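Work through this:
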Amino acid sequence: MLPEVPKPGFEQEIKKLLPSDGDVPKNLVVSDVNKDTHRLFWSKYSSKTKLAYLVISLAWAGFFMYLFFTSPALNNPKNDSEQIYIFLALVPAFLVAGLYASFYAKIEKLFMQQFAATHGLTYVGKGSDADFTGGLFAIGHGHIVSHLMTGTFQEHPISLFFYQHTVGSGKSSKTYHTTVLNIAHEHTLPPILLLVDNQYFGGFDPKLSFSQPVKLKPELELDSQFDLYCKEQYEIETLQIFNPDFIGKMMSNWKNFNLDFSGNNLVVFKSGKILNVEELENFFSLAKYMMTGMETVLKNISGSVKALNELNPNNIK
């Protein structure tokens, strides 16, 4: 008689359902995280598997909804046990949502790794906001740096990552996601903040970046799309940077991106995660332009910025 083969345990069966690294094709080129996740997730299950799961889920949900409507708890307002039936009825939906979220996270990571490799950057993963300066990192709590990639461009150390912070607490709390690129300079930059006028990130106040902010209205109607601030006494240097040529490029190519000049760092950021190649390339092109097309201007005004900083040593909070 042949020995009895042990049956796989429950945990092993569950693991078979969970997305694994093998579920993501090694040669997959991710151009849009949302589209690629949706396509790959549903294509990994056969039509028979999806139909069987749907039938079982409907039967499962129907059974517990039957218990819900026939439960004596419905006639007893002090008994909250009927909520258990609702939760159990939704278990199949929760399972699919969890599987999809896990698969989505893998595609998102692959997307960022591929972008890093394309641009000669090193994918690090997790990071700390303590390494960066600027008003964005002074808002709220629960700060998280994820999908961090680092490297250099034109001899400037750069860091590209997703950033998360929460404003408020309890039911009134709201979490914000941001795409950030930090550029480090050898010379100090003037305290300037350029904000898209509908991206205030849950309480972004110019005073978070520097004290005594002054709102400027330069040429070419920049004010129709952006709010431009600088610290008092730095107006001339600000307008040298935001000259008609640069303003024209911002209005034409980078209407949805923000700039925060903080100490030796320039922070380029946008509300939300950028999860498609075309927009992330455009985002990166603004950062590259700041290190090429604007570097001469930044160096030319560095002397006056240094002098003003010596007169105002506490200009950056």
The radius of gyration is 26 Å. Residues 54 and 92 are 9 Å apart (CA to CA).
